[in-house]
Amino acid sequence: MFAATGPADVQAAVRYAVDRGLPVAVQGTGHATAAVAAEGGVLITTAGMSAVRIDAAARTAWVAAGTRWDQVVHAAAPAGLAPLSGSAPHVGAVSYTLGGGLGLLSRGFGYAADHVRSLDVVTADGRLRHVTPDREPDLFWALRGGRDNFGVVTSMAIDLMPVTVVYGGVLVFPAERAADVFAAYLEWTATVPDVMNSSIALIATPDCPSIPEPMRGRHTVQIRIAHAPGDPAEGERLVVPLRTLGPLMDTLRVLPYTEAGSIHNDPVAPGATESGTAMLGELGPAALDAVLALAGPHAPVPHVVELRHLGGGLARPPAVPNAVGNRDARHLLNVVSRIEHSGTGEIRRAHTRLFAAMAPWSTGGRFLNFMNGRDAAGQVRSAYSPADYERLTGLKAVYDPRNTFRLNHNIPPGRVPGGD
């Protein structure tokens, strides 16, 4: 393993691997499960490359490869700015962004990858390249959505948004009311503006003192809300139909963006999980019945099942095109199961049944950031349009023809663009 402290270390590690014909894997915070086994390869950890610089006048941030989102959030806040960070502020900012980046403000602003200004990347030839829309535009397109298939990104420059507060929190309901709450949620999402971001989740919470009493040791349905930018009073007005459902717990309030991670309250420590994801179109009662029949509180395998509302800025092409696909999806279904709670085989069979049942509503696509189950390596193609995937394989042949960067959600080398 190479623990890099700067771009020169990354270059040395890549050259070492290439000279010996070894594959390369990259790890930032270690939050996500590896897509494939890395035994016999070279692991480059960028956790030691942690730094942020804010340019308040330009509304941008320069972010080193091992930096977590919470570091960027707190650095930007004094300037009245916020990054397009995710629900979990402790994950790595760079890897999240390269995979697309679906965050708390995405319906209003789009994917995090849509707001990258430049990238510094070490490619398979050992070169450190400064990549922008004007310098190596093909590589700039591929990196934003192609993750670590084309090199090791050592830093990025990103846009910041004029956001200081968010109206948000969670509404918690007993799982016995899941059918009614899910139905009301879907009806509600059809009416809200782009600045309203939300998801609904079925969660089995442990019986431990750190869990609030209304949720402790029981299955619950949780609606997560993040309204920004805009008047918080408008956000409060918009959630009235959900509040009339009578939640067990209601934490909705005006939050500084530095506390926005409390909305999803994702676990800080990485855990051993098996997960799957699917991009979905419009949903109705039959789709809800399928989810609840296989993943409700009576299911033998406990899951976290989350449905995220897409559309808005996520559906619009960015000013500078990138490889992020499936922008036509209306919802994202994500299922996560902790391995210590059930056997891996049992979890995988349960996931297979659930996603098969949801096939009538699937767009056929998946979201790269949430692909870390058994079949993730074989599902990479589904994260892109057919034309974009072909372009990615061609660019892979240009920048990494030996597929050195393959211990990942791999895009194999294809035909060189313009070649025979």
Give the helix/strand layout:
Layout: E1 2-3, H1 7-20, E2 24-27, E3 42-45, E4 52-55, E5 60-64, H2 69-76, H3 93-98, H4 106-109, E6 116-122, E7 128-131, H5 137-146, E8 152-159, E9 165-174, H6 178-189, E10 196-204, E11 219-227, H7 232-238, H8 240-243, E12 249-250, E13 253-256, E14 273-280, H9 285-295, E15 304-309, E16 331-338, H10 344-357, H11 386-399
Parallel strand pairs: 1-3, 2-3
Antiparallel strand pairs: 4-5, 5-8, 6-7, 6-8, 9-11, 9-12, 9-13, 10-11, 10-15, 14-16, 15-16
Helix pairs in contact: 6-9, 9-10
Describe the structure.
This protein has 420 residues and is of the alpha+beta class. It is built from eleven helices and 16 strands. It has helices at residues 7-20, 69-76, 93-98, 106-109, 137-146, 178-189, 232-238, 240-243, 285-295, 344-357, 386-399; strands at 2-3, 24-27, 42-45, 52-55, 60-64, 116-122, 128-131, 152-159, 165-174, 196-204, 219-227, 249-250, 253-256, 273-280, 304-309, 331-338. Strands 9, 10, 11, 12, 13, 14, 15 and 16 form an eight-stranded antiparallel beta sheet that branches. It has a five-stranded antiparallel beta sheet with strand order 4-5-8-6-7. Strands 1-3-2 form a three-stranded parallel beta sheet, covered by helices on one side. Helix 6 crosses helix 9. The relative contact order is 0.15.
Structure keywords:
alpha+beta, 11 helices, eight-stranded antiparallel sheet, 22% strand, 420 residues
Which descriptor suits the 3D outline? Answer: globular
Name the structural class.
alpha+beta
Proportion of strand residues:
15-25%
Q: Gyration radius, to the nearest Å? A: 21 Å
Q: Average pLDDT value?
A: 91
Order of helices and strands: EHEEEEHHHEEHEEHEEHHEEEHEEHH
Largest sheet: 8 strands, antiparallel
Uncertain residue segments: none
Q: Counting H and I runs of at least 4 residues, what is the number of helices?
A: 11
Helical content (DSSP H or I, runs of 4+): 10-25%
Please tally the β strands and state the result: 16
How far apart the termini lie comes to 39 Å
